[in-house]
């Protein structure tokens, strides 16, 4: 009920992407359409190499589309959307910069004064649970901690929509589970729209308000699921396992 009242933040309309090489072409995405509602936790679930990253890059304006449109707050966007932030699986933290400097970097590029960017960076470092590690270097941190830095860095740039591309794909199972809970806590606290990409059905069912299920290549929207299970979700409850089985039966590949 609450979801139906949410306004549209973004509309992805009929997006297709074909890569042309000298003698061949390859269609990665075919006629993909869905809405992103303001404030929701939207999950895009699809098999590996099915075009998820290409789709995210198009949504963020980092990649050209072959067809279709991305509407943001009612207006068609071309080029980079400055209100969209990204968290990647491979974070590319600057190795010779501290946690604080890494989190501040985007603000520094935008010319935010030093005192203000220190304050904002510290607030997000606290939010992701890294208080006390401001002066540590990336090599001194675990995988989960590095992802926390990436999340703090993205939030510090004040995005209205945060896109996360398989951010926990390289973490061990236990760290992944704790980061899933962390990201939900931060999302509930910050109240920003999240578009989260994964190839893991369980993760999708645990996190999402809705799941956009993509087909194998070329990526098409196979089904959209509204998830009504209240949080915190219990992964071994009957309703959770039923949902998981329903989605699993509908996927093209074992993902
Ligand atoms: N610049 C490019 N030129 C040609 N093909 C490309 C280009 N970029 C991506 N592709 C192809 O598009 C397909 C989708 O790639 P993409 O990285 O979006 O998949 P993905 O779903 O994010 O995969 P994964 O789950 O492994 O991260 C792949 O087969 C890839 O080889």
TrEMBL record:
One Pfam family of this chain: ABC_tran
Name of this protein: ABC transporter ATP-binding protein
InterPro entries in the cross-refs: AAA+_ATPase, ABC_transporter-like_ATP-bd, ABC_transporter-like_CS, ABC_transporter_ATP-bind, P-loop_NTPase
Keywords: ATP-binding, Nucleotide-binding, Transport
Domain ABC transporter, residue spans: 10-241
SUPFAM superfamilies linked to this entry: P-loop containing nucleoside triphosphate hydrolases (SSF52540)
Listed GO MF terms: ATP binding
Matches recorded under PROSITE patterns: ABC_TRANSPORTER_1, ABC_TRANSPORTER_2
